[in-house]
Sequence to fold (628 residues):
Amino acid sequence: MKNKLSRFGKFLSGMVMPNIGAFIAWGFITALFIAEGWFPNPQLASIQPYMLKFLLPVLIAAQGGKMVGGDRGRVMGAIAVMGCIAGVGGIDGEPMLMGAMVMGPLAGWVIKKFDQAMDGNMPVGFEMLINNFSVGIFGMILAIFGYYAIGPVMSAILAVLAAGVDFLIAHSLLPLVSIFLEPAKVLFLNNAINHGVFTPIGAEQVQQFGRSIMYMLETNPGPGLGVLLAYMFFSKDDTTRQSTPGAVIIHLFGGIHEIYFPYILMNPIVIIAPIVGNAAAIFFYSLFGAGLNGPAAPGSIIAFLMMTPRDSMFVSILGVAIAAAVSFVIASPIVKMSGAKNLDEATSQMQAMKAEAKGAAAPAGEAVAVSGPVKKVVFSCDAGMGSSAMGATKFRNRIKAARPDLTVTNSSVDNIPADADVVVCQRVLADRARACAPQVTLVVIDNFLADPNLDNLYKTLAGGNDAAPAPAPAAPAKETASQPAASAMNGVLLREGIQTGLPSVSKEEAIRAAGALLAKLGYVEADYADAMVERENLVSTYMGMGVAIPHGTSQKKETVKKSGVVLLQYPDGVDFGEEKAYLVFGIAGVGDEHLELLGNVCNVLEDEDALEKMKTSSDIDFLMGQLS
Fold:
């Protein structure tokens, strides 16, 4: 149940968080230019309702559609939510933020199902016509559905929720929210609650009253500040005590609340302090009708005060101080009397919990936490043509005996399939992967061929089966000198595309040499080598085991004329960071023609003797035979 709630919460927050900048812009316009703002200006204040009623719902729906249905889902979501907006009165109706959270994913799901039904059944020459008209027709149908059904229903639900909040405030019960909210923070469910629930309700209250207390519930830095101050003055451990001043600065001014989570994990009973501290602040804010104009993201005192209305500045500051003081008073005796865990141990525990909550890989040696059944694993790199293809092939060969039902494929990190359950990518690409597919389990690695987190993922998906990896498929019959190969895989690899016995050079020179050979053989345009170097500067294409596969960035795919692979052999090696590459495969991919060859490269990697011979052999026929 926890995993399901976490996954659902991540999905909700995944629609809102990429658009937080738009929320902040809306909040600033509200704080500055409405009648009660810092610089009242009716003309500029008129921007605010259009942003709230149109811009924010469209952005959320588009993001939700993209998460489920890719770029076509993004367009569908934006179309569909307009029906909801019109259905509740447009500029005069309620903000359809919650409607957007329904219509966006629904639109993405509809177009994804249509695309799946049409896969392989599209009449030749009608692709563009069908693709464009399908989005337009289904978008229109969903907009009509949103007008008559989803918009009014969401409006009613929002009214009930808003009435519930008003009831809690009127009866002084809203402080009880902290009983659930503060533990949820430590479990990394705060973004899901804040952006998935509080933000839509807060937007409705801002529209009516110019401010909302909902924006103050999760972002108040006071409760965590009190816990940190208690450790600063009363911790028995010198290392812990000395670490707190820096943590205070990061928490209070940087807005990174998770900095204090390890201090709670050292003494779990300390959680009582922020619960009571936040409850006291919420009660105080309710008493004085306080609220913010927009979401304070991140939860820094700076952002908190910047979103505070002009007439409530003192109340906002005092509420933060009350939360910190109450939290400090309660936490201090607990910290003073308790034998705490080591801070490093608590930090490691927090990292494991964070990995589970965010769907990231656990530290080396620990199992990867996944939510729900896993049916599809996607390996992603920048362009989706080289590193990820080899990584997917090797992992597929490894796990197919234990999980024959599992689909293992590869993609560009910016075009991760909507039905992916687990995404594997290199560390430097993790943020792009989360932005593209925030709802998936993300496994971060350093090496596509041999990485501890790949071992962890294998153990998790194989159900704890630590048996040896499945053997590679039997290699096809090798070509001999009496049966020379003119080409392999329909011209993807030519004899002229293999160079052996090359002297050692720098990494960039080796990459440019591969690019020049690809251009000479007509696979790419001359400037493709620049894209290969750019790709290498982004993240290394060294795969491990003496093999590198440099290729261009996704932005330079238009310079690829046809799929092709070249092989440059450096018997003395080329330095790729701390490793040496002896076989440098230059890759240019248009379709999937090159993927079979990369699969064969992975098969060769399973045969260490053949791989070692490939690093030094000058026999072109032997090399062609190994890769065919």
User: Anything to note?
Assistant: The radius of gyration is 28 Å. The first strand starts at residue 376 and ends at 381. Confidence is low (pLDDT under 50) at residues 464-488. The chain has 24 helices and eleven strands.
